[in-house]
Specification:
Radius of gyration: 61 Å
Strand content: 15-25%
Largest sheet: 3 strands, antiparallel
CATH class of the largest domain: Alpha Beta
CATH superfamily of the largest domain: Band 7 domain
Number of strands: 10
Number of helices: 9
CATH topology of the largest domain: Tetrahydropterin Synthase, Chain A
């Protein structure tokens, strides 16, 4: 093979590949370099190459670095976000929504969503005022009110919040009995816990504001839960029966009062009638006494006849005793009156 022929490869084929030296020269000219002269006699290292201009490359590097650095310095905050800037470890400013600037590598940036309502829930066993144990589940809703205090004053604000919730809850539950904690006192307990929790957070200067505290669930210990459920059921039955009794009382009392008023009016009417009748009898007796004094015998006979008429008019059967005999005369007046009535109807 002929390895000295530069136009053909060792196998006799024509070599059409571009020359490497020519490619390097073109690339050097694109970058603005100067072509290096080739020694006529030829040198041992090939004699071809290019030089990069150090000033232009430095300018390109600074430009690229400026773009990257600017992208790290300029940023945007949403409407609900706020940022705290620390320059060399010291508070510098608090930035609001929109485009903002910081010195990357020098300033520290802390971004938080101050409009977001956060929620925390925990369950603990508490000791009540009457020395009973109860399991209480409490939830708190809160948000960041002061971002500067949230970032700078406390290392772990939300950890402080959790500890403060437990402390406030234990204090309030310890002032209430088991019955109040499990039933009617839960709303008051939640309000007291919220007030006490907010005072703790203000003392710590955490920058957090508590929006609402709820007592999600209160349960007695598992060992006595069945017995307590029976007590609750009995209390509910008691309240139900009391409500039924009150409804019955509301329906029966007005009716009884109405009947009482009716009987009072009847008694008053009877009283007036009896008094009037008595007064009439007294007046009639006084008149009769006056007549009796004038004619005692006639008045006595008249009274006797009136008495007989009054008695016999109400009797349907009369027994007549015959003077000097042993026989009684029976007069069936009722039968006689019926026969006379029938005869009168037939005649008509």
């Amino acid at each position: 093979m002929n390895w000295d022929n530069k136009e053909n490869d060792p196998w006799g084929n024509k070599n059409d590949a571009p020359d490497f030296d020519e490619l390097m020269k073109k690339f050097s000219s694109i970058l603005g370099g100067k072509k290096s002269s080739t020694n006529g006699s030829g040198s041992g290292d090939g004699g071809s190459g290019f030089n990069f201009p150090s000033s232009r490359m430095l300018m390109y590097a600074l430009f690229a670095f400026s773009i990257v650095y600017a992208s790290q310095c300029i940023y945007q905050l949403d409407a609900s976000e706020r940022a705290v800037i620390l320059r060399l470890g010291k508070f510098y400013e608090e930035q609001e929504e929109g485009l903002n600037f910081r010195l990357a590598g020098i300033d520290e940036r802390y971004i938080e969503n101050v409009s977001l309502t956060r929620r925390y829930t925990q369950t603990n066993s508490m000791l009540t005022k009457d020395e009973n144990i109860v399991d209480v589940t409490v939830s708190a809703q809160y948000r960041i009110a002061n971002l500067k205090d949230f970032v700078l004053n406390v290392k772990d604000p939300e950890g402080s919040l959790r500890n403060a919730i437990e402390s406030a809850l234990r204090h309030v539950v310890g002032d209430n009995t088991l019955d109040q904690t499990l039933t009617v006192g839960r709303e008051n307990i939640a309000q007291e816990v919220q007030s006490r929790l907010q005072s703790y957070l203000d003392i710590y200067q955490t920058g957090l504001i508590v929006q609402q505290v709820n007592i999600e669930k209160t349960d007695p210990p598992a060992a006595v839960k069945n017995a307590f459920d029976d007590v609750v059921a009995a209390r509910e039955d008691k309240e139900r029966l009391q409500n039924e009794a009150e409804r019955y009382a509301l329906s029966i009392v007005p009716e009884a009062r109405g009947q009482a008023q009716a009987r009072i009016k009847e008694a008053e009417a009877y009283k007036e009638a009896v008094v009037a009748e008595a007064e009439g009898e007294v007046e009639r007796f006084n008149q009769l006494l006056a007549e009796y004094l004038k004619a005692p015998d006639v008045t006595r006979d008249r009274l006797y006849l009136d008495a007989l008429q009054s008695v016999l008019s109400n009797s349907t059967k009369v027994m007549v005793d015959v003077e000097g005999g042993n026989n009684l005369l029976y007069l069936p007046l009722d039968k006689i009156m019926e026969e006379n009535k029938k005869k009168g109807d037939d005649d008509e």
